[in-house]
Amino acid sequence: MKTFDTIHNTKEFLAEAKKSGRKIGFVPTMGALHEGHLTLMRRAKKENDLLVVSVFVNPIQFNNPEDLKKYPRDLEKDKKLLESVGCDILFAPTAEEMYPEEEVTEHFDFGKLETVMEGAFRPGHFNGVAVVVKRLFNIITPDKAYFGEKDFQQLAIIKRLVEMEKMPLEIIPCSIVREPDGLAMSSRNERLKPKERAVASLVYQILQEAVQLKDKKSPVEIARWVADRFNNNPSFTLEYFQVADETFLQPLEQWKRNTGALGFVAVFLGDVRLIDNIRFY
Ligand code: AMP
After folding, report:
1. Domain coordinates of the chain in residue numbers?
2. Ligand 1 center–CA 218 separation, angstroms
């Protein structure tokens, strides 16, 4: 595996690879890699000639400075995991390399997609994600880029970004990878205290129970039921639960025949914020 920390060297190397017609599969990450990330990478490796992974904790997508400070980082461990999935190129730049300007002023308009859920509760988050992903795509020039449905709204934002910027690549959505007890894998899980980890599987259990109610209750009733389940458990502080359509991610009041529907949750366990989602239809 080759490791680069400058844009120049990465571009130079990949330009050669492209010239010889090799297809590039790209998985952007913020490191602290786990099986969820590795699953995306194995797929990208299989479907392309070169696997490129970026590890960059993107400061401008954190609306909470404490969250940025506490975000787990272990590049040496990540490198070993990357070798184990046959990663060809690791791009691990510094913040100065990615953001040489004093202030990032680029602004995207994602319309209604960014006014709900993560967009509503984390102001500026998706703009930060879009800025970094656009830069990464321009550096790596992937043929295919892989994103997890764990961050379903992010995936919708990236698809829209590629459309708006007319970028010549394919976005490949990948299913959520879970721990044996159902907890969606996340770098943030590392920060759960043992007591918190012990109850964390309830997040997915509650989502699954909610799906069982879909024939009896409306989306609004289900949202109320889920909120009660979390609010009655002192370990959790619910930020939101919402049933939304799969394309525009707008809240649904009634089930609709012509669109898929998912339930989305963001919940705090102590000071760790977890997100998850589940399909209803
Ligand atoms: P992150 O390092 O959290 O920015 O994640 C990098 C990529 O891995 C994103 O596309 C995430 O959606 C994806 N990812 C993270 N956790 C999971 C998971 N448990 N299952 C599937 N994809 C995931």
Report:
1. 2-174, 187-276
2. 30
Do 239 and 121 meet the contact criterion of CB atoms below 8 Å apart? yes
Q: Is 37 marked active-site?
A: yes
pLDDT in the model for residue 208: 98
Question: What is the Cα Rg of the chain in Å?
Answer: 19
Q: What percent of the chain has pLDDT over 70?
A: 100
Maximum alpha-carbon separation in the chain: 60
Average pLDDT over residues 75-86: 98
Which CATH code is given to the segment(s) 2-174?
3.40.50.620
- Answer yes or no: is the C-beta of 151 below 6 A from any ligand 1 atom: yes
Q: Which atom of ligand 1 is nearest to the CA of 178?
A: 19
In contact, 170 and 142? CB cutoff 8 Å? no
pLDDT, average across residues 57-78: 95
Q: Which of 8, 34, 37, 125 is labelled catalytic?
A: 37
Confidence (pLDDT) at 272: 96
Q: Give the Cα separation of 90 and 58 in Å (integer).
A: 16
User: 187-276 in CATH: which number?
Assistant: 3.30.1300.10
